[in-house]
Design a protein that fits this description.
There is one protein chain. This protein has 179 residues and is α+β, with helices and mostly antiparallel strands. The chain has one domain: 2-Layer Sandwich (Beta-Lactamase), CATH 3.30.450. It is 58% helix and 21% strand. It has a 5-stranded antiparallel beta sheet with strand order 2-1-5-4-3, sandwiched between helices. Helix 3 runs antiparallel to helix 4. The radius of gyration is 25 Å and the shape is elongated. It starts with a helix and ends with a helix. Pfam families: Longin (PF13774), Synaptobrevin (PF00957).
Length: 179
């Protein structure tokens, strides 16, 4: 029961922003998390990437993609893959719902009523499925490793084929010269 309770408290705060304008947010906790996250948001570079800041036993994780910023604040004990899985899930859902639509012109916190509960749902989903997500990530890592080994093997095979062709040409040249 203790582990389940601890997992339920992994996620502290989450938001989606367009640039530095927070469009939707969710938290069940009181504290200065929104203020700290907003300060971090002001300092983020504009490029598509992931950023993590540590502060007071919490990590502030950001995913920047096409002018939008997805953020989640978690306890520092939460595995990194949990934050990444959450951010990717929120990004995909938000883009499906609002991509090229009203999010492009929405004012601050105007999507709270619609998307705030979705942020909460994604937090609950990731918490409930963390073990499966970890297994999937391990399998993906293994597949990636196998893929790189296969590409390396293909490259070696092609090089060997080129060497065999060169040897065949040299043998042909020697045969011609011998005649």
């Amino acid at each position: 029961m203790g582990e389940k309770r601890e997992k339920e408290e992994w996620f502290i705060y989450g938001f989606v922003a367009r640039g530095t304008v927070v469009l939707s947010e969710f938290t069940e906790f009181t504290g200065n998390f929104p203020a700290i996250a907003a300060q971090c948001l002001q300092r983020l570079p504009a490029s598509n990437n992931r950023y993590t800041y540590a502060c007071d036993h919490h990590t502030f994780n950001f995913l920047l993609h096409d002018g939008y910023v997805y953020c989640v604040v978690v306890k520092e004990s939460v595995p990194k893959y949990v934050s990444i899985a959450f951010l990717e899930r929120v990004k995909e859902d938000f883009r499906k719902r609002y991509g090229g639509g009203k999010a492009d012109t929405a004012i601050a916190k105007s999507l709270n009523k619609e998307f705030g509960p979705m942020i909460k749902d994604h937090m609950q989903y990731i918490t409930a499925h963390a073990d499966e997500i970890e297994k999937i990530l391990k399998v993906k890592a293994q597949v990636s490793e196998i893929k790189s080994i296969m590409l390396e093997n293909i490259e070696k095979t092609i090089q060997r084929g080129e060497m065999v062709n060169e040897l065949a040409e040299k043998a042909s040249d020697l045969h011609s010269q011998a005649l």
